[in-house]
Write the structure tokens for this entry.
Amino acid sequence: MSLRSVTRRLDIRALRRPSSCPNASLSLPRIIPVWQACRNVASTPTAEKVLFPGALNSEFTNNLEFMRPSKNKAISTFRILDQYGQVLDKERGVDTTDEEALGLYQNMVRLNIMDLIMFEAQRQGRLSFYMVSTGEEGISVGSASALNPTDPVFCQYREAGVFMQRGFSLDQFMAQLFSNTDDTGRGRNMPVHYGSRELHIRTVSSTLATQLPHAAGAAYALKLQNQQNPDVEPRVAVTYFGEGAASEGDFHAALNIAATRQAPCIFICRNNGYAISTPTSDQYRGDGIASRGAGYGIDTLRVDGNDIFAVRTATREARRLALTDGGKPVLIEMMAYRVGHHSTSDDSYAYRQKVEVEDWKRRDNPITRLRKWLEERDLWNEDEERETRSQLRKDILAAFDRGEKKKKPKIRHAFDDVWENITDEQRAHVEELKDILTRYPKEYDVSQYEGGLDSLDELLEKKR
Amino acid sequence: MAAKSPSIRALSRYLLRPQAPLHPRCRQQCYTKRYSSAVAGARLNGTVEYDTTPLLYHTSKAALANPELPEDVRRGQTKRINLYQAVNEALRHALQSDERVIVFGEDVQFGGVFRATMNLASDFGTERVFNTPLSEQGLVGFAIGAASEGMKPVAEIQFADYVYPAFDQIVNEAAKYRYMSGANQVHCGGLVVRMPTGVVGHGGLYHSQSPEALFTHIPGLHVVIPRSPTQAKGLLLSAIKSNDPVVFMEPKILYRASIEQVPVDPFYLPLDKAEVLKTGKDLTIVSYGQPLYTCSAAITAAEKDFGCSVELVDLRTIYPWDRETVLDSVKKTGRAIVVHESMQNAGVGAEVAATIQEQAFLRLEAPVKRVTGWATFTGLMFEPLIIPDVTRVYDAIKKTLDY
Ligand SMILES: Cc1ncc(C[n+]2csc(CCOP(=O)(O)OP(=O)(O)O)c2C)c(N)n1
Ligand SMILES: [Mg+2]
């Protein structure tokens, strides 16, 4: 280290040194946290509070009392509508125009019908896999409606409603689900792993919780960019995850780093009671996921996920909070019940009672709750319901039909995008594959792929 | 709406009765074969027949003739089971015979997503067979700790694709535990990390990986991949008995596809021996796991077409692997092909080929050929073009013989 830099560092230190700590020595590091500058306080005989490096403002006590989280009152759940669609706080209202509410309703119903159709289509062997959002439509549709459309979103997989609310078209859904040539994922991902750069939603990856630190990092990038471009509307990053995924190390790492870097990131947990077969009682023993926010010093709220108005209001407020004081993370735990099977590969009656599911279906649901509110206000009726459902079903089946008929993506997409440019090794592999496909034409049906064998030539011709 | 195809109409009808029960028992295998790239007139691809393959014991008599079985087992009974049932039987025996054995992982309690731990929690209690929270690094680290206290934990990773969060625990801790403790001689033998591996035809990027070569680059672990129910049962029991940690990778396509007669009694198969599945004199194919079936089908066609004779060797344990069996075979045949699903660069094939080149160079009539996954990921629509198929192995045999 040069002498010059040492002197500069000393200068800065002198400026930052808290005046309340006259003992702070000059050999302290450049940025001096309060606790370091005040190491001696804890040892004064009359001090009432400690300033140990790891805990600020802790009072001394001579009561031997362990914290017993199980004895605490459970964190409350925010809602705006009751189960019958009645507004609880008439003064605040629902914070949503009638028109918006009708749009949200339609999107939830569209998602719900698409789920029914695609689930059954998988059962018929027409696509390889599917996951429904049943019971959680309000969380994805509602939260997405309260975000800025350019806020980058990092999904888990049960958030098709976010895509729908942002305008992902039925044809785009079908292209991905059937892995056809229009799929922007180029036929590489399993169904429901949607992604759209245009809509600022990252491609879904099956690995749980990996997207959480990404969101924290993206949020930090946004924080810097928000500062650098004060004229552009500030953005936040948003990520969704299940209560099961919240057990992964990445969850904890993400919340912690987002907190230490004060990144404007909204962490939205969908707590639907299950992680495949694992009930929450095997997943954690704390008070849900919300209780963890405090541990990381993060502003946190628990919300009734069956109440789309509550979801919206909570998300909007979280967004505001996330952008105050230069930015900070916020955690929202949206409560729900996973009404459907985990996926088409799962039969949930192997681990839960059918009556449990039926009870939940009957008890509460984001779609019926909003419908009650709409009907109460004369914005909706049985005829409209029937008409809308029938129209949506037709639209979805038409898109289904178009999507299913299209060819598979080009074979070249098996190889490109691994690196920015195709490598020599890959080139050799492409040549070997092409040679096999050419010499054994009866063994393969390359015509099902867009462009057949030709796309391999495109790849080989691509300049090195 | 424009003219509907009849099946679209069927879907519509389904929607008119949305309360209709869904097909409840239709699980992973419900979805079949649509993405196979083999055409109707194919002669090679699509010829892997699990019902008739010589790699499985279709009769009790054949199963009991296995020379690796001890005498008393050979005098016993067999039962026709698939690979996940064989895993279940091995776990059941281990739990029954050794109270140090504990079995856990994500969704293990209800039987696991591939049903390998079915009924174990109810039969042995949830103290010993249980769900863990969803954290691979957590559950593997937990297993290492339990093993270091003398237990025999069998930890399940739901898919090999999800083992990476636990990579640190496996590489830096499990593998090195004995070595770092030195004269203290604390180890985590008894630890088995089970995981389903390989493609099934529709797993895409995160349900298809074969990351075995990542584990073969680490001393201190045994990496085992069984090819059949019998192998799964015998090798898993040995893995649990072993005083070294074992990574046990189960080809998930074989869970249901491979069915054979398996001895009912417990038995132990060696963790340090490859097995010659078929003898031959012109060429040796070395493989492991599911591709062995592909190789076997290719060999049948090649022997018929070219009048050659091909030897097939199953490595079984891919590290530390049985060099002697492989080298003896290649020294005899003079030609070798290595086949695996995972990609070529720095794969198991690279190690086997290099060893053959070093130790049997003068006996070689042709370069050692590798038939493997290409240098890419397992994109959903391209799986059948990426993974070695019968045609590619057949062609490799032809080229190696013609060299
Ligand atoms: C790292 C990792 N481990 C395991 C899995 C297998 N897996 C897929 S979904 C799932 C359960 C997730 O539950 P949760 O986060 O609660 O989301 P939900 O399905 O309830 O929406 C598991 C274990 C995975 N995809 N990734
Ligand atoms: Mg869940």
